Protein: Torsin-1A C-terminal domain-containing protein
Amino acid sequence: MNIKRSVVTLSLWLIYYFQETSCFDPITIGAGAVFTAGSIYSGFKYFTNDCKSNECCNNENWIKKDMQALKMAMNQRLFGQHIAHTTVLAAMTSHINNPEPKKALTMSFHGLPGSGKNYLSSMIANSYFTKGENSKYYHFFNGRTEFTNDQHIDKYKLSIKKKIIDSLIDCPNSIFVFDEVDMMPQGVLNVLVPFLQYGKHQNIYNDNDQHIDIKTNNAIYIFLSNTGSHEIINTLIKIWENGGNRDNTKLSDFENIITMGAFNEIGGFKNSHTISTNLIDHYVPFLPMEEKHIKRCIEIEFNDKNYKPSDDDINEVMSYVTFDSSTHNLFAKSGCKRLSLKIATIVYQKRDKFL
Structure:
């Protein structure tokens, strides 16, 4: 069917109809008819052609919210993080299954570099959006590179606020990730408070103090931070020294100490209203990685490169991993971070021998 030809025909018919039945002048009639037909065309185009090839918010082909895929990804690739696994999966599933959530889902991931915070954020994006992190509804902010000057806090707040308003107007199911929160200036995140509050209708105003009617509660906010790492490690060491097992630890063993650490340490969460007003739903600890977890990371990286590693290959990669002597050499200082490039180099060297 030729849609444009049909729209022209509809416009002409509407002009004729209104000329015969109304007292408006021909110019007004013509403009109104074209506008009406154009609106019908735009709507038809939106629900047919556009959403087949272009990402649309209210379309399950693009916003898939596949929690089984998230669960599978965590089972296969997230190591040593049983608390994050159970907490995040339950929080995400509960949120998306509620057609009218009371507030936006807000989670804060805390732990050492390389423990899986960014990795899990990527898993969430890939299970939520068909285009994953490339979705136009997935918004990533880097505290280290985007918010570098303490003198520009008001400017940063206005920028974040505008981005969130525009994004929520475009799609209420947006996901916002704030990485390296500990590198952000103190006070910047206070701008998020109106978007995270309980209730159907929030008092959101744009830069011109105009009230904006937007849906805030279907969005998801994720904060990634190294704050609280020392508290997590010290708590885990005490549990180990008392004969406990890390696999038996619970969210309640860490959540309060993470909250206090984040609120008092220098960075974006220091004295933050997002914490003091209890708007963060889950403080998720990412436990430091032990040798057995690092080896599983290594095996996965080799498998991804279609290479079956020998024990010597794995040991070579392990030689680059540094363990913290202050933790009885139990925990790797940087987890699985930086190992991918080491493994890529080893695979290249081994394969190059056979060329």
Notes: The beta strands are 105-111, 138-142, 175-179, 204-205, 211-212, 220-225, 282-286.
